[in-house]
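Comment thread on ticket #2218

A.B. wrote:
> Attaching the input chain for the structure job we discussed in standup.
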Amino acid sequence: MVEDSLVGVRAAVAAGCRVWGITATHHDPALAGTLLDAGAERIVGNHTELQAALGV
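C.D. wrote:
> Ran it. Output below, let me know if you need it in another format.
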């Protein structure tokens, strides 16, 4: 799952999903760390990075 919010990452983790955080349109420089702390496995900065990480 790919999520851009703290609540979304927490919900995904609680549901047993693997989750990556995306910070694409957010301007809070602390968001990446917040999503990682909440359980995101990885952070990508935008959809181009996401596509590259997924190999598509």
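A.B. wrote:
> Thanks. Noting for the ticket: DSSP finds three helices and three strands in the chain.
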